[in-house]
Amino acid sequence: LLYTIKFEMARIEFTVAVLLLYVFFRDFRPSESFLTPYLNETKHFSKHEINNMIYPVWSYSQLPLIIAVFATTDFLQYRPIIWFGALGYIATWILLVFGKTVKEMQLMQVTYAVGTACEIGYKSYVYVAVPREDYSRVSLYISGAALLGKSMSALLSQILSDYSPMTYLDLNYLSLASVCLAMLISLFIQKPQYLAPQSSTVNPVPCQESAPPMHDTAPSCLTNCKNSVLTGLKKAKLSYGSAQTRRWAYWAIVTTTLYYMVDNSSQSLWKDLEHDKKKRFNGYVNGVEFLLSSFVSWILARHSKTIEKLPVTTVAVLTLVVSATTLLPTIIQNLYLAYCCDAVFNIIITSIITITTFKIAYSLKTDLYGFVVGVNVCVAGLIDLIFTFIFMDEHALSFNPRQQYWAYTGFAVLNVVAFFVYKGVSLMFFRSEDPNPDPILVEDGADEPLLGLDQ
Fold first, then answer.
1. How far apart (Å, rounded) are the C-alpha atoms in residues 250 and 190?
2. How many CB atoms lie within 10 A of CB 140?
3. How far is CA 228 from CA 205, 216, 225, in A?
4. Cα 360 to Cα 81: distance, rounded to the nearest angstrom
5. Could you give the CA distance from residue 71 to residue 52 in angstroms, rounded to a whole number?
6. Residue by residue, what is the 3-state secondary structure of the chain?
7. What gap in Å lies between CA 44 and CA 55, rounded to an integer?
């Protein structure tokens, strides 16, 4: 028995170590902080081609890929999703290094979307690869590994571009080597040994190959698909039946959408505001904001009791501050101000996402949490896709980066105004608190009342 326990502990430690190495090298991509300058100065694409023809493709590809991954992660047992994501990143940097046309760069955005969508794979793998009591600790380690990879690669990219003869093309070769190494490491990820309490995603049930006659197979498939849809609808009803969950999910969607929008346009705005290549500090900015965002997230996680008492109005006010960080760089067109605003934007967005994540988890049973997070991400992806088509795509308004930031500001302000109008109407005509928390939605054993709109 002692030998079995020691063997199991060694297996878990090996699994976690491999996963940490994979996440670190997957996120160690030094060229990413200088993607726009690389496409413009090394690949010689125009700003219009980069901003209005290449970058929008990521938003178009992200949503269907997230839905596909969300629906098949449990069914495929996690590891194929991780491998597929690693291959997506490899394909991305192969195209970045060797691609020469707009079409090839658009394909690069599709493969990059494959990599980002498949992040669900390794995040979900934790919950089936380690014992339940280790969830929090291992999740913290993985977040730290991802942060370390991003911050170190960003800072290294700035140092190498400033103090060495390395070019942006060389940085892309370095990124390609890192994601290839991540792929090799992922091959050592072991098959999950623990089962999740209950599937958190809605997955199609495969047809049974042993079905006797062929004419019975089709009805069986249709029945299974129907059951999957009904299960998804039932989970949606249970998950979003609580006003508490709906309020916090709303802000989770808004902030995730804002993150997608700004992340896809920030380098283009910096490029427009830049007057001297020697004063380009993208790497330092990204590296510092990753570290600060992680520190803020860690502080909030250590003060969960304080988060429990935070009213939803706090998030609305923070979102209003976020709108200021997207508006100021378009009015006072200064590169260093834009850098500072981007750092503040990411820190606040990280804070809001941490708060909403905690609040949603607080109001739901464990087996519904993953479903809600997945739906929120899909809705955010849909809104980002719509905004991208309207404001970025060359076939629509084709806004420049500064004008896009005006749209992002309008989106943030509109949601804040809508919230306070709703809050005012609720206080005037309706009861501001939920009657009683739904026992189905509250975590087992929890006896605290759910927070109301006016708290």
1. 37
2. 13
3. 7, 19, 5
4. 26
5. 31
6. CHHHHHHHHHHHHHHHHHHHHHHHHHHCCHHHHHHHHHHHHHCCCCHHHHHHHHCHHHHHHHHHHHHHHHHHCCCCCCHHHHHHHHHHHHHHHHHHHHCCCHHHHHHHHHHHHHHHHCHHHHHHHHHHHCCHHHHHHHHHHHHHHHHHHHHHHHHHHHHHHHHCCCCHHHHHHHHHHHHHHHHHHHCCCCCCCCCCCCCCCCCCCCCCCCCCCHHHHHHHHHHHHHHHHHHHHHHHHHHHCCHHHHHHHHHHHHHHHHHHHHHHHHHHHHHHHCCCHHHCCHHHHHHHHHHHHHHHHHHHHHCHHHHHHCCHHHHHHHHHHHHHHHHHHHHCCCHHHHHHHHHHHHHHHHHHHHHHHHHHHHHCCHHHHHHHHHHHHHHHHHHHHHHHHHHHCCCCCCCCHHHHHHHHHHHHHHHHHHHHHHHHHHHHHCCCCCCCCCCCCCCCCCCCCCCCCCC
7. 15
Alpha carbon 14 to its chain centroid, in Å, reads 26
**For residues 316 and 415, what is the distance between their CA atoms, to the nearest angstrom?**
8
CA distance linking residue 153 with residue 160, whole number of Å: 10
431 φ, ψ to 5°?
-70, 140
**Inter-residue contact 206 to 76 (CB < 8 Å):** no
CA pair distance 115, 112, nearest whole angstrom: 5
| Region of residue 443 (phi > 0: left; psi between -120 and 50: alpha; otherwise: beta) | beta
CA gap 323, 406 in Å, rounded: 9
In angstroms, how far is CA 150 from the centroid of its own chain?
Answer: 14
Measure Cα distances from 10 to 16, 141, 166, 259 in Å.
Answer: 10, 17, 41, 39
Which pTM was predicted? 0.83
Residue 432 has a pLDDT of 45
Distance between CA atoms of residues 332 and 322, nearest Å? 16
Q: What is the dihedral of CA 346, 349, 353, 356, to 10 degrees?
A: 160
Q: What is the C-alpha to C-alpha distance for residues 68 and 50, in angstroms, rounded to an integer?
A: 27
Q: What is the number of other CB atoms lying within 10 angstroms of the CB of residue 334?
A: 14
For residues 48 and 404, give the distance between their C-alpha atoms in angstroms, rounded to a whole number. 13
Residue type, 179: V
pLDDT at 352: 92
- pLDDT tens digits, residue range 244-298? 888 899 999 999 999 999 999 999 999 999 988 888 999 999 999 999 988 888 8
Residue type at 337 in one-letter notation: L
Report which of residues 455 and 11 the model is more confident about: 11
Instruction: Answer yes or no: is pLDDT of 373 > 90.
Output: no
